[in-house]
């Protein structure tokens, strides 16, 4: 399954399961920041839209504790910067329908809160596909050290990118094909996952997971009866 399909499926699921009562555990989050990042003062957040998990309560509490808060403004060529913002400050609506600060003061965050479309078991991020955060992170990493924290609901985890060859066998079985498990071979691209009905002794989960992140993947099976 390619990233576009995974992205579409997760977004539909997020809309279906969205519940305003589901919130980030504020006390644990603030405690985590204070224990692990005592010298942090600049926080880059986002204004939630499209059923994203809400970070505004966190930003409000941090603002009251004298942290400097910033939100992104989208620029030309899919670039963006973060600009200082407080709850009392006005916002404008950008071309994507997302509220942005009217401030002209750029702030480089120490911590960047990133809204996720999805994530996998290795905590790799799946975004909307526009590359806004990818470009910004690449840029700011050259300026300063930034801690990135992805925010998402648990049901946004992408199980499809996990290299689960058991699901492939199940799919073959449901297709009505007769399988000789002792001769079954499954390949993801050039990677041999199953050999003679058993997990290949040279199977490498990291390589397989990396391959499964490609936009398009090729799965081949040989189940000679």
Mean pLDDT, rounded to whole units? Answer: 85
What's the number of domains? Answer: 2
Q: How far do the termini sit from each other?
A: 27 Å
Following the backbone from N to C, one meets helices and strands in this order, namely: HHEHEEEEEEEHEHEEEHE
Write out the strand line-up for the largest beta sheet, numbering strands in chain order.
3-2-1-6-9
By DSSP, the count of extended strands is 13
CATH topology of the largest domain: Rossmann fold
Query: What is the molecular shape?
Result: elongated
Q: How does the helix and strand content classify structurally?
A: alpha/beta
How is the biggest beta sheet arranged? 5 strands, mixed
CATH architecture grouping of the largest domain: 3-Layer(aba) Sandwich
**What is the CA-atom radius of gyration, in angstroms?**
22 Å
Structural overview:
The protein is of the alpha/beta class and 225 residues long. It folds into 2 domains: 3-156, NagB/RpiA/CoA transferase-like (Rossmann fold, 3-Layer(aba) Sandwich), CATH 3.40.50.10420; 163-222, ArgJ beta chain, C-terminal domain (Ubiquitin-like (UB roll)). The chain has 6 helices and 13 strands. Strands 3-2-1-6-9 form a 5-stranded mixed beta sheet. A 4-stranded antiparallel beta sheet has the order 12-11-10-13. A two-stranded antiparallel ribbon has the order 4-5. A hairpin with a 2-residue loop joins strand 10 and strand 11 (191-195). The mean pLDDT is 85.
Quick gist of this model?
This protein is of the alpha/beta class.
């Amino acid at each position: 399954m390619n990233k576009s399909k995974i992205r579409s499926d997760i977004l539909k699921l997020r809309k279906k399961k969205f519940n305003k009562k589901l919130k980030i555990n504020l006390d644990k989050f603030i405690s985590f920041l204070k224990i692990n990042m005592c010298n942090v003062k600049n926080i880059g957040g986002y204004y939630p839209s499209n059923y994203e998990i809400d970070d505004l309560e966190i930003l409000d509490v941090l603002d009251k504790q004298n942290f400097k808060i910033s939100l992104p403004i989208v620029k030309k060529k899919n670039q963006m910067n973060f600009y200082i913002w407080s709850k009392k400050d006005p916002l404008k609506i950008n071309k994507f329908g997302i509220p942005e600060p009217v401030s002209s003061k750029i702030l480089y965050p120490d911590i960047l809160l990133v809204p996720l479309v999805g994530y996998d078991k290795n905590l790799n991020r799946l975004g909307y596909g526009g590359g806004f955060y990818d470009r910004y992170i690449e840029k700011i990493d050259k300026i300063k050290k930034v801690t990135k924290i992805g925010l998402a609901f648990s049901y946004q985890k992408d199980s499809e990118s996990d290299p689960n060859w058991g699901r492939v066998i199940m799919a073959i079985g449901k297709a009505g094909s007769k399988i000789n498990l002792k001769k079954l071979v499954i390949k993801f691209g050039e990677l041999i996952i199953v050999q003679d009905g058993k997990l290949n002794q040279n199977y490498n989960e990291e390589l397989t997971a990396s391959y499964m992140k490609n936009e398009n993947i090729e799965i081949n099976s040989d189940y000679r009866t």
